[in-house]
Amino acid sequence: GQGLSGRMLDDPQRGYVYDFQDYVVDVKTFIDTVVKPGSPGKPIIVLSHSMGGGITTAFAETFRDDLKAAVLVSPMEMIALGSYPEVAAQSLAAGACLIGKGGDYAIGQGPYDPDRVFAGNDVTHDESRFNMNKELVKQNPSIALGGATFRWVKESIEGTWGARLWAWRIKTPLLLLQASDDTVVKLAGQDSVCSSAKSCQKIAYAGANHEILQELDSIRDPALQAIRDFIKKQQTN
Q1: What angle, rounded to 10 degrees, do the helices at 187-196 and 150-165 form?
Q2: Are 173 and 199 in contact (CB under 8 A)?
Q3: 79: left (phi over 0), alpha (psi -120 to 50) or beta
């Protein structure tokens, strides 16, 4: 549903998934058919970001022995829904799905805006990296992604509910990198998962927006070093 992967609707810009577990099954399929045959017997370490972090959390809860370790960067363990409480947003989205509007943009969502400006953005303080992403989309229009549909909102809220509820099942060592100024996902969800998992190290980055790995060097460099150190430690254990 993102990047150059398959898009589920005729309008490829609409963020959509029929069932959140489809994401988890996709990861399992990829690991079993690509990763393991390509590197037989080697430990598997996942580096994930945002929605990918939420998917990795659910994966680690379900397939408890598949991963050696996982890095969760600004993971989506609870969505920031503005003024809408989770239950209200889920009920509204579920209602829209029931009347056949699941593929419609959710309230406040819309197509990708190629003219989005750096000032006031909610993902990074680094203007050069912000503009780099815009240029990538300009050169590769097929990777453009607009906002979320009602179905995606419903499934993602329910998926993150499950991720937080079952986090105690995670025995995979986790490194969770948290952006203190994140307005895309809620930090409380990350805190809940990290406190429930059996082995979770959390590092918070003051002044960071959602895209930690595309932030200013003063934030990004320490984050990259933390990832390297964590992976090296897991490889020697």
Answers
A1: 30
A2: yes
A3: beta
End-to-end Cα, the chain, rounded Å = 35
**Main-chain dihedrals φ then ψ at residue 40, nearest 5 degrees:** -60, 130
User: Tens-digit pLDDT profile for the chain (237 aa)?
Assistant: 999 999 999 999 999 999 999 999 999 999 999 999 999 999 999 999 999 999 999 999 999 999 999 999 999 999 999 889 999 999 999 999 999 999 999 999 999 999 999 999 999 999 999 999 999 999 999 999 999 999 999 999 999 999 999 999 999 999 999 999 999 999 999 999 999 999 999 999 999 999 999 999 999 999 999 999 999 999 888
pTM for this predicted structure: 0.95
